[in-house]
Amino acid sequence: MTSPNIELSRTIALAHLEVSSDESDQYIAQLKNILSHMEQLNTCDTTNIETTPYVYQSEMTLRPDEISQPFGDVKAANPQHLEGPYFVVPQILGEGE
Description:
By secondary structure, the protein is mostly helical. It is 40% helix and 4% strand. Strands 1-2 form a two-stranded antiparallel sheet. The chain starts with a helix and ends in a 10-residue tail after the last strand.
């Protein structure tokens, strides 16, 4: 398992967040607490438990197929973020890796 400090630093960099040292320490403590809980769950004996694809069973809701413009209202509200039919977003992968 990787260090929570490394994972938090990488996540903060990828999300372009500004986090103070105090906040970082708080988040690391919370992350360690979550990982500790996951370690406890890993010790549970699940050999006699049947696997399921979902947490709960539900009926599949079907709707009729209708042709529509995808993201029509979003495109109309944000024309400055369009380049042709595509959304323009800042590059986050490949920076500082």
